[in-house]
Amino acid sequence: MEIPLPFPILQFPFLALNAIVLNFEQKEFLDFSLISKRSRSVLKSLKLFRFGLRISFKDEIPWVSFPIPAIDSDERNLQLSIIWIDYICDIYCYKTIYGIFLDTCASEAKINQFVEWLNRRITRIDNCHITGEETNGKVLELFLDKLKIPIQAMSVRLKANKEMKPLTRKILEFDYFIAEGNSLSKPIKWITLDHILSSKCRILSLDYTALTETDLNTIIRDG
User: pTM for the complete prediction?
Assistant: First the structure.
């Protein structure tokens, strides 16, 4: 059987090469970027805005574009993961992130390191999903206090075995916020009436909340 000759794609003129590259699939762009400086410059000139980036710091999530698990890694591995994410953002010209998945089991050092990168590299986060067995809210509050860029939608699902103290008011500074508690016997008490009344949130969803009927009437009247 005759062996086909190599296809010298990188020797094509710039415009012709652009036309070929536009037919690539999402991860083919990434493979192509690793060939040479010229291949990277071609990709960066295309501004591939049709792809969204989701970053996961959890072991299992329903869908993800570039899974980068780091929850069980040490600080060195987290640093390498951030370098890899930074490279992806550079190739795809990302300034916004479609989704971030965080677990409250992450250490404060890891959260600080990741947030520093977000503040330096990203201008907006569309969706942030935080889950875990949190009992004091430290990781969640640290993330929100250190983060300097806006988040459009926040989803918090905490399986708190102990009662958590109310969080800072910054917890509801989003367009959309959803929080889920454990059950009616362990409702959400870490979001209070004062949180809601001072919030600029347009859509708020609370499952298993400790708010009373009087609180709900106050929200309707004064919210």
Answer: 0.73
Q: Kindly state whether residue 1 falls inside one of the protein's structural domains.
A: no
Is the Cβ–Cβ distance between 59 and 69 less than 8 Å? yes
Count Cβ atoms below 10 Å from residue 132 Cβ, excluding itself: 19
Q: Please work out, in degrees rounded to the nearest 5, the angle formed at the alpha carbon of residue 74 by the alpha carbons of 105 and 27.
A: 90
**Does 23 map to a domain?**
yes
Judge whether 180 and 205 are in contact, CB under 8 Å. Answer: no
Residue 200 inside a domain? The answer is yes
pLDDT tens for 164-212 read: 666 765 667 788 888 877 777 777 878 888 888 888 888 888 888 888 8
Q: Kindly state whether residue 80 falls inside one of the protein's structural domains.
A: yes
Q: Fill in the DSSP letter of residue 104.
A: T
Structural domains of the chain, count? 2
